[in-house]
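Handout, page 2. Input:
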Amino acid sequence: MNRILASTLPLLKTAKTLLEQLQAPATLAARVFVGSAFFRSGLTKISDWDTTLALFADEYHVPLLPTHVAAVAGTFGELFFPVLLIAGLFGRFSALSLSVINIVAVLSLSEIAPAALQQHQFWGTLLMAIILWGPGKWSIDAWWWPKFSK
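Output:
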């Protein structure tokens, strides 16, 4: 048993080192994937503002907010927070903000296709990982936070 463990341990250490090397690019990929999805949605909204207002009035039923306010807030959030998320600037806050937008989007639709719901759940999972573990080593936060916190 000790011999098996002794021969496996170096392999496990190597695997751990390799996986740790993949954390930064994987976190960046998650930030870019989610951020670009939300940013493209925001660009779609500003490309035809009249349609956006109509969608918020008829299709999206955002609770507690008037239609125009919900449209402006949602569009702003989809354009502003993805840029911060992709850069890794205020990464956890940006991920949390996009999580709120994601949840409101799902709750405000009276009917959502299963594939669309699954996509929102996947984005939510990636955003939750960024909230819990941070934006990663390849982020502005990783560069400036240690200098700022001293």
